[in-house]
Write a structure and sequence with these properties.
This protein is of the alpha+beta class. The chain has one domain (15-261): Alpha-Beta Plaits (2-Layer Sandwich). Helices cover 27% and strands 28% of the residues. The protein is built from six helices and eleven strands. It has an eight-stranded antiparallel β-barrel, surrounded by four helices. Mean pLDDT is 88; it is low at 1-16 and 21-30.
């Protein structure tokens, strides 16, 4: 089932975004609040050769209308390893505001005007993870949106972990893995876990029955990311530093996404 919605160019008021930005992380400047308490990681499989058409439409018509409806468009990306995949993130203040925002957005005039054009680019849009920050007050620190070419690369890592192992895995990530990532040149932006609350907008399905820990990191460019990946290959991984109780969390290889921000992505 394919679902999506992108609303009108109604004036972007500040009021609908109140509450979407979480409290600042203690180590971050108070001028850079964290976004967002609820995050969707959306991966779309597209018809061959249609990604640029969708990105042009999205960047031109779908950013401000979604934010006017009460959500935050965090970032939109080209998958560097799959020319027919479009990945994007959007955030919400909580699950009930998510329902309200999506109802307004998917029922609005811009989606009605553009849905056929958008849907025509897509094979599947149901690969969606519903996430929350791994720690209260966490999330992405987003500067004001700046249009223009972005040379950076964002890496998203998705670890599939049994629900009971999520808290110790988050501790292990923060105390062991994250310092190693930083030493190898990765600027870790945020970490998340699965949001287990029921989907408040079932018209848009999300993946269920899975438990993940996901982290995002920024690199200056593709060369820096490739050098980081080579250092990680030589290091051989982190499982040797994990306690025996966490070894089941490494049974499944993590999903790694290498993402190039579009010209209007806030996260870059």
């Amino acid at each position: 089932m394919r679902r999506r919605t992108f609303v009108s160019a109604a004036a972007l008021a500040a009021a609908p975004l109140r509450g979407i930005l979480a409290s600042p992380h203690p180590k971050e400047s108070s001028s850079m609040p964290r976004c967002c308490p609820i995050v969707e990681l959306r991966q779309y499989t597209l018809h061959r050769g249609r990604r640029d058409a969708l990105i042009e439409l999205f960047d031109r018509a779908f950013v401000e209308p979604q934010e006017a409806a009460g959500m935050r468009v965090i970032g939109q990306f080209r998958d560097l390893d799959d020319p027919d995949r479009f990945v994007w993130l959007r955030g919400f203040a909580a699950m009930e505001p998510r329902r309200q925002a999506l109802e307004a957005f998917y029922g609005g005039p811009v989606w009605a005007a553009h849905r056929d054009e958008a849907n025509a680019t897509m094979l599947d849009s149901d690969n969606v993870l519903l996430l929350r920050p791994a720690r209260a007050g966490g999330g992405f620190a987003l500067p004001p949106r700046q249009d223009g070419a972005a040379a950076g690369v964002i890496v998203a890592a998705i670890h599939y972990v049994d629900a009971a192992l999520v808290p110790p895995f988050v501790d292990f990530f923060e105390h062991v893995v994250q310092p190693r990532l930083a030493a190898d040149g990765a600027a870790v932006l945020a970490s998340f876990v699965t949001e287990t609350a029921p989907n408040t907008f079932p018209r848009l399905p999300v993946r269920s029955g899975e438990s993940v820990v996901a982290w995002f990191a920024r690199f200056a460019d593709a060369r820096a990311q490739e050098a980081f990946a080579e250092r990680r290959r030589r290091d051989g991984g982190w499982r040797d530093a994990a306690p025996a109780s966490l070894l089941p969390a490494f049974m499944r290889k993590p999903e790694m996404l290498r993402l190039a921000p579009t010209r209007r992505s806030a996260l870059r």
